[in-house]
Amino acid sequence: MVSRTGKKRVREVGATKRSTWEVIRRVSHYIKPYKWLAAGTIGCAVFSLSFAFVYPKLTSYIIDEVITKQQLEQLPWVMGCLLGAFFLREGFNSLRILINNYFEQHVIYDMRMDVYRRLQHLPVHYYDQRASGDLMTRVIEDVNNVERVLIDGTEQGTVAILSIVGVLVFLFSMSPVLAWVALIPVPFLIGGALAYTLTAHRRYRRHREASSAMNALLMDNLQGIRQIKAFCRQSHEDERFADRSEQLRQGSLGIMKAWALYSPSMALATSMGTGLVLWIGGRLVIEGSMSVGDLVGFVLFLGLFYEPIGRLHALNQMMQGARAAGERVFDILDAPVECPDRKGEFPAPVKGEVVYQSVHFSYGEDRKVLEDISLVAKPGEMIALVGPTGAGKSTIVNLLPAFYELQSGSILIDGVDIRQVKLESLRNQISVVSQEPFLFNGTVLENIQYGDLDAGSEAVVDAAKAANCHAFISALPEGYDSHVGERGVKLSVGEKQRISIARALLKDAPILILDEATASVDTVTEKLIQEALERLMEGRTSFVIAHRLSTIRHASQILVLKSGKVVEQGDHDELVARGGVYARLTQIQNTFSVEARFEQLSDC
Fold first, then answer.
1. Number of other CB atoms surrounding residue 322 within 10 Å
2. Predicted local distance difference test score (pLDDT) of residue 595
3. Phi, psi (degrees; rounded to nearest 5) at 368
4. Superfamily of 20-334 according to CATH
5. How far is residue 537's CA from residue 531's CA, in Å, rounded to a whole number?
6. Is residue 489 a contact partner of residue 222, using CB atoms and an 8 Å limit?
7. Distance CA 443, CA 458 (A)
């Protein structure tokens, strides 16, 4: 399906559902390298909590022993102890935050790098089904959300449980009757948490999908901004973005509405518990079985009891969001990498003989693309592929570097089946120059040097000269250190194409795949590119997807394709003498591309 910006839309793939426990188990793997940081974080939190217990005990003592008995001489040392407890509580809390942040950033880094590395090793067809914006959301936003289960969940959950247990010990030691009264709201809190948990996941899942969809549309629009402006579709794109934003708004509101009901309800239950304690505790004070100081201390401890329960509720909300994010992150980490079992290497030096033997290929069960393709390319030969759009030209060359896996038949390089060698060894033997050159958002030097990261500046300049781009690069404001912009937007099509040729020259691979690069440039630029391509193809086995017949007259072999089959094969003179499809193509003297000429023949 093609959007109005002219870009192919990819379908959005939902994440596999996983339980909260599975997400926690998977994420906990990232704790192991930093177990001492995790222990330090929890240890500081426990110490901070311990000193927090001093406040209600000293408050009770001040009321009963200092104020009631008017022993003012004890006030200075009691207040000193209280201030010291406050200082130590906040000191350990500050240390906890420092350790926790250090811990957190290491875990985020490790997880994000694992996801990124996985993306680098996934097959091309994985990206055919997913929007780039969706994948970016998973790498950046979802990783952050998943990490919260690990760091905040581990720390807050552990400390909250320890706090509840510790406070209960104090409550029962002070007044068993009031302690049981304080526990009255707990069944309601547990029931509310269970009800919220059972319904929260779908809301968070919807929210993460809406966020991903909006980011995908945003990236698509930013990359297609020229097409949007050229077709005056700003209003149309505003409507599309507003629709995605509305879905995200509704997803966020769904979460907030549930939380707006859940959180106050839980707070109300704990408030009712505090009210019951004050009611019954007040009667105990009036009856003389409990002092005012003990009641005040009990109520302060009660706050320390209900507060971590409320924290567990917030943690439950956070974990449901992290679960939805975790499903999306682990979908990437669980996706099968391309060709993991290949162990072989090509023996050096590679001469570049390429043989296709009865190759068949299809995209799914319904899209048969290639049928019984066979050819032999000897070292240094040029193989041209000609045919209408959809004939299978690009698929033939994409199978050579194993961008897609063969389904039947075989492809050999120097007699070695490409399925027997590691992808790095295979792809090191192949250079690719596409019709639409891709440049990274860096300098000219960095883009050319991408062909050989160890190449020095002299080798880069030699490659640029051979690619007929040294002159225009030297005229740039900063020469080879000039930035090309995103996707090379600061350069013309012809300039980008010559830089990509220089990059391929620097790689110096024995096999070349060339999606003819002169189809969309002016005559002068075409001549410069053609000269550069001739230097690039010299001594290399070249596969050329032809858009202009004039560029392939000297090809060693020309394969004429139609509907995934080779209908004619031979050199230029043989095919012209044969009087078939290729001969009729050469008789159509106009400036249309080969694909357009095929359409003309079909109409005839």
1. 27
2. 56
3. -80, 120
4. ABC transporter type 1, transmembrane domain (1.20.1560.10)
5. 10
6. no
7. 16
DSSP H/E element including 558: strand 557-562
Whether the pLDDT of residue 461 is over 60: the answer is: yes
Q: Report the pLDDT averaged over residues 453-472.
A: 88
Angstrom distance (rounded) from CA 73 to CA 416: 94
Q: How many Cα atoms occupy the beta-carbon half-sphere of 93 within 13 Å?
A: 12
C-alpha pair distances (Å), 490 with each of 482, 487, 496, 521, 566: 10, 9, 9, 16, 40
Assigned CATH topology for domain 351-429+512-519+540-604: Rossmann fold (3.40.50)
- Whether the CB-CB separation of 371 and 360 falls below 8 Å is answered with yes
Instruction: Please give the Cα distance from 424 to 421 (Å, whole number).
Output: 8
411, containing H or E segment: strand 408-413
The CATH superfamily label for domain 437-508 reads: P-loop containing nucleotide triphosphate hydrolases (3.40.50.300)
CB 214 within 8 A of CB 241: yes
CB 230 within 8 A of CB 3: no
Tell me which DSSP letter residue 436 carries: S
Cis preceding linkage at 401, omega within 30: no
Lowest-confidence range among 70-74, 111-115, 443-447? 70-74
Which H helix or E strand runs over 369?
A: strand 367-377
Residue 392 CB neighbour total at 10 angstroms:
25
Q: Can you say whether residue 479 is alpha, beta or left, with left for phi > 0 and alpha for psi between -120 and 50 degrees?
A: left
In the chain, list all ranges with CATH 1.20.1560.10: 20-334
